[in-house]
Amino acid sequence: MNEFRVADVACEYRTNPLGLGTAAPRFGWRLVSDRRGTLQQAYRIVVAGADGRFESPVWDSGVRESDTSIQVEYAGPALQSRTRYTFRVKAWDTAGRESDWSDAASFETAMLGAGEWQASWITPNAAGIDPQAEAAFLLRKRFELKDGIVSARVYATAAGAYELYANGRRVSEDVLAPGWTSYQYRIQYQTYDVTDFLQAGANALGVHLGDGWYRGGMGFEGRNFRYGERRAALIQLHVRYDDGTEEIVVSDPSWRCRTSPVLYASIYHGESYDARLECGGWSEGGFEDADWTAAEALDLPMNVLVPQENVPTRVTETIRPVSAFVTPAGDHVLDMGQNMVGRVRMTVQAAAGTRIELRHAEVLDRDGNIYFGNLRPAKQTAVYTARGEGTETYAPRFTFMGFRYVKVEGYPGGAPPLDAFVGEVIHSDMEPTGSFVTSDERVNRLQSNILWGQRGNFVDVPTDCPQRDERLGWTGDAQVFISTALFNFHGGPFFTKWLRDLRAEQHPDGGVPFVVPDVAGGASSAAWGDAAVVCPWTVYQYYGDRRLLAEQYGSMKAWVDYIRAQGDDEFLWNTGFHFGDWLGLDAKEDSYVGATPRELIATAYYAYSSRLVRDAAKALGHREDEEKYGELHRQVVRAFREEFLTATGRVAAPTQTAHVLTLMFELADESVRPRVAKDLNDLIVENGYHLTTGFVGTPYLCFVLSNHGYHDTAVRLLLQDSYPGWLYSVSKGATTIWEHWDSIKPDGSFWSDDMNSFNHYAYGAIGDWLYRKVAGLDMDPAVPAFKRVRIAPQFGTKSLSFASAAHLSPYGRIESGWKVDGPRIEVMVTIPPNAAADIELKGATLSELSEGGRSWDAAEGIYSAAEHAGGVSLTVGSGSYSFRYENADLFRVVYSEQSVLCDVLNDEAAAEVLRKHLPHLFEGPMLKFMGTSTLKQIAENGLTRVSSGVMDAVLAELAAL
User: Fold this and answer.
1) Alpha-L-rhamnosidase six-hairpin glycosidase domain spans which residues (predicted)?
2) 108, 296, 470, 886: which is the annotated catalytic residue?
3) Do 684 and 591 fall within a single domain?
4) Does 780 share its domain with 769?
5) Are residues 557 and 632 in the same domain?
6) Helix axis angle, 531-543 to 546-564, nearest 10°
7) What's the per-residue H, E or C state across 411-434?
8) What is the Cα–Cα distance from 481 to 776, expressed in whole angstroms?
9) What is the pLDDT of residue 218?
10) What pLDDT is recorded for position 901?
11) Which of 162, 201, 572, 728 is most buried, by CB atoms within 10 Å?
12) How is the chain split among helix, strand and coil, in percent rounded to 5?
């Protein structure tokens, strides 16, 4: 075989996108090769019109000598509005192979000019329908079309949430369109291909219009009309005929309106639907609407309209309830088996007027009754009133719920049958890109919980929780979780849209709201406002998106400059309100804020963000800013050390989080970092291998332990199934991540109703450590988008015998996995074409290393290899590799399994065990370690290899001491 081809061609992250608002879209592709070490030498892109005549292209890049295969920008003549283009790609590799042309793909532009809207915002005439009516609206327009329809596109949006119909059919599967943006600045519109929905003769468009986020009581005050008092729709249909003519149908006062069977719909509270009010065929051309009310134009802004940026929110999965039961309180309850976000679709045969109520909740209390307390005022209730005609099906349209359990009242016959209900999972329809699995099924359940938590909280914005009266885009939660999120799902469009809202909402002085879109008030807490810097930088790291980084760069600088302007010392941040280490377990009684001083956290993040702005300046070629923010970073680090560290490495605050931030953000001098790390480890060991960190410290805790020689402690924290720890919630049956470490206490009681979400993804940030450190799949931060991969799995404890992670990067699928069987280790790696990897094989030697069953130096694709005290370092090209070797690095295992910190000379019993089994340690080159070194220091030199039998004997005897 000699396979070399171009696959997965995309435009602006998507396959055949419709309605792009980008004047110069970017292309990307993946290479497929059956050879190791494949690198692209050159590429060629040809863009043609809709007819696909590539021999007469709109733009031909020509053959470009480049290894770039992502974010390649269109550089041809100006694109036309509302126009479809086709494109294809071919590539050459460094071995001289030329691929065939890729399959043709397409993209279609939206309305690129500001003056192209001819439609008006419309709403029911106030004389006929109360503008403040709770019921949703139906709006329709009948029109005639001639023969010869070639194509038809609808450009649609709403001040509210809408569903679009054409001739009696839903135009798309989108849910809660147009999504939630900072509406006063930006409202997305959608582009739909309705060619197959239309016909010659009578046609109709219909809009079902609810409040959505626009008019509902979002935020803590429950105040309606945050963006506007009246819902409205904006519709523009363009129909092209085979004779070259075009016809346009727009929303205007000629449309007809009435209230819908949706009597009430609220994001927080649910929906009420009366099927007796349905009017069949209401969106068809032949429907009689004489008794409907006329529409009226509404003076809403047009300059806020932007083409769809995010992927749409959709039903992505359906799940069946696993059981139905009667609680001790006598309630009929369905168990979906999974805490999910979305809605229930119900099928029923019932008499007209039968009222069925579905109340949604996350958990049962310790008595087995369904628990609604943590919802606060949110009702999460769907009410259906039956039409009374045969089999009826209903699911809410303009809301979503966070739930596992459903209380069913009023279902005919009393006990609801399982086959009458199905859960429809709703979230932004992002492509799954990551996986992780280990030998411990509890950790696998944790990974599943992380995924479900992300799905449930990525409903058009990155929300904190999906069930209570909050569901807001908290900036702090987003920034601590974004790397985990982007590993698991392709979030480029998702965060592009949200970050543009953040930039729009940013205050004139550079302050950043607590939530985006901002419906809560309050701004500029450390670790929350830093989302303005951390999030665009992380998107750049994952996708190499320099355009988004450049867009957000002014916002990034403005945030750091805001911090610098606070207080009397420009290099310390010791003023203003901060959430601190939110929900830290070392908090004072009746406080949500952990014990770590807020000014320490604020200054630590100040240093971190100034460093990232420096790095962004470098990536964008802003040399003056690179120096400016580099110097600022140095000064903030200096000030932090003077204020919060002693010269010997003592951290002023004796909290886990203080030590974590000091190490993670590299705020201590390199010479004293071992002291800081040891003190952190001691704090954890003294606490029975339990954490005390909150929202700020937890995401980085295991990282700093693994990075500073305490990976075993990090693994013990991971596997801790008693409170507090990640597996405690798993032991309690959690299927998502909890807001509190003890949302359900050991005795079955609950944390306070005030703030107790059972689907709150922030602590799921442990996933980033699982993927990068346990499985060892990481990137080189200097070469974004995983073009340069780092593979460095950390093993050595007996707690896990294998782990594996995979990520679908812009270049292709990356895999890193390992298995340990006694002293035998196998590391499996896959690197996609046009990428390379640096691999660290812990405890390996070149003499014992094999790849694919042969000596490593006979293997194709290995560019370099070097042995050092810790193992072997390799540089490899693309391809799949299987490395095997024996690693009986006794002292690492002894140290990691037993946490022995004793000095050999001061612990005669431990020394005697070593002399008995390993006498050579006390001879020759090892003599220099005796008398001054701890077992840990001896272990870290990795000089001794023994059989697994001797290893087990030593461990057993040390454990008995």
Assistant:
1) 433-774
2) 470
3) yes
4) no
5) yes
6) 160
7) CCCCCCCHHHEEEEEEEECCCECE
8) 18
9) 87
10) 34
11) 162
12) 25, 30, 45
Query: Is residue 211 domain-resident?
Result: yes
Q: From CA 425, how far away is CA 453, in angstroms rounded? A: 12
Decide: 58 and 85 in contact? Cβ < 8 Å.
yes
Show the domain range for 152: 122-307
d(CA 875, CA 858): 14
Residue of 379, 601, 582 lying closest to 469 (CA atoms) = 379
Set 108, 392, 739, 815: catalytic member: 739
> Which amino acid is residue 437, in one-letter code?
V
Last residue of a domain, one of 861, 886, 911: 886
Domain of 175, CATH number, reads: 2.60.120.260
Q: 129 and 105 in one domain?
A: no
User: Which is nearest to 530 in space by CA: 469, 590, 480, 577?
Assistant: 480
The string of pLDDT tens digits covering residues 233-244 is 999 999 999 999
Please list the ranges in the chain whose pLDDT falls under 50: 890-906, 924-948
pLDDT the model gives residue 605: 98
Residue 784 lies in a domain: yes
DSSP structure string for 191-246: EEE-GGG--SEEEEEEEEEE-HHHHS--STT--S-SS-SS-EEEEEEEEEETTS-E
pLDDT recorded at residue 897: 39
CATH of the domain at 730: 1.50.10.10
Looking up tokens 């985990």 gives 484
CA dihedral sign of residues 197, 198, 203, 209: positive
pLDDT tens digits for range 268-289: 999 999 999 999 999 999 999 9
Query: Measured between alpha carbons, how far is residue 462 from residues 13, 454, 482, 722, 735 in Å?
Result: 19, 8, 9, 29, 19
Domain count along the chain? 6
For residue 739, indicate whether it is catalytic: yes
Collect all residues with Cβ–Cβ distance below 8 Å to 282 and sequence separation of at least 6: 138, 140, 206, 289
pLDDT at 958: 63
Residue 919 is predicted with a pLDDT of 63
Is the distance from CB of 791 to CB of 829 less than 8 angstroms? Answer: yes
Q: Is 605 helix (H, G, I), strand (E, B) or coil?
A: helix
Is 470 considered catalytic here? Answer: yes
* DSSP-derived pairing of the beta strands 105-109 and 18-20: parallel
